[in-house]
Design brief:
Bound molecules: protoporphyrin IX containing FE
Organism: Penstemon smallii
Signal peptide: 1-20
Domain Plant heme peroxidase family profile: 21-328
InterPro entries: Haem_peroxidase (IPR002016), Haem_peroxidase_sf (IPR010255), Peroxidase_pln (IPR000823), Peroxidases_heam-ligand_BS (IPR019793), Secretory_peroxidase (IPR033905)
Number of helices: 13
CATH architecture of the largest domain: Orthogonal Bundle
Helix content: 40-55%
CATH class of the largest domain: Mainly Alpha
Largest sheet: 2 strands, antiparallel
Shape: globular
Strand content: under 5%
Catalytic activity: 2 a phenolic donor + H2O2 = 2 a phenolic radical donor + 2 H2O
Number of domains: 2
Amino acid sequence: MKKTQVFLTIFMFHLCVSKGQLQVGYYSETCPNAEAIVNYVVSEAAKHDPRMAPMLLRLHYQDCFVEGCDGSILINDESVTNPERGAYAHQGVGGFEQIEKAKLFLEYTCPGVVSCADIVALAARDAVVLAGGPFYEVETGRRDGLISNQSLADDMPDVDDSIDTLKSKFMNKGLSEKELVLLIGAHTIGTAACFFMPKRLYDFTGQNNSCDSDPEINPYFLPVLKQKCPKDGDINVRIPLDAETNEKFDDQILRNIKNGMAVIASDARLYDDTFTKQVVNSYVYESIWNIPTSSFLQDFAMAMVKMGRIGVKDDSNGEIRQVCSSFN
Ligand code: HEM
């Protein structure tokens, strides 16, 4: 065997070990149309509901951060006490019907083969592409988890966390500070409810007066946000997370963060820290050269693949559910 072949074999071995049983094209023999079926369901749903793509992208993140990417967020069964889905941290999460619909088609086509956790991961990728973001290969082969409990979501990153807390919560999931910035870049699409805004706009330091807002908000942008989410107004009103190009998956969210135009507090916090600030800046188009130093879209895709590896279950601690909202 040539030296390069030996190196490649060792390299591939390590790659497989680090991601467990996950592999691109895991269903290519057992359910060759699996990815096409998920893609069909997501595309059809997105045609009728512009909120679908951001919801499905968020669903994958919310799933992965609690008990790993194992579909634990999907459980909605009366026989389960306090399932994870009802957790405070999962406020506003949606897309469940589309995952269940894809599962129904898949069970008809190849029963007992494709996990719900994989459907969520594939749907998130398709959502990114539909919004104009990068295509990336999704590693599959996850099993569905056997646990779903609200209390396990207690430690999810919170909109009002400090940058140090956000960094450590991501670090605990094996994600770097750079990946924190990249993944938060997902807020280039979608909306947030005014529910998440009062502290940032009216009670940032706990003085509870209308001048007590996050000093990082651009003074021109502050009245815009306050108008959209007035004090004691309707907390269900939804506002774009990317105030400039909300429906397009691009790098505008990072420019917004740089310009003090982040909408939710946790996005703004990325500019509080020397390292994460530098990462944001490295992706932002500089006005003179108009060339970013790194490719946000490409790096975002890699960070998504890495997030998809969090806490993946295998046959020893997981199953292939028949219905995504119930354990077998
Ligand atoms: C620091 C971590 C994060 C925090 C604190 C956070 C917080 C939030 C909040 C408060 C909302 C608004 C929810 C609503 O009103 O329904 C939201 C929406 C969203 N988040 Fe995050 N998020 C974080 C990371 C992520 C990551 C890693 C992703 C994906 C990779 C993501 C994707 C999304 C998307 C796409 C939406 C829009 C959902 C919609 O339009 O329904 N978020 N996030």
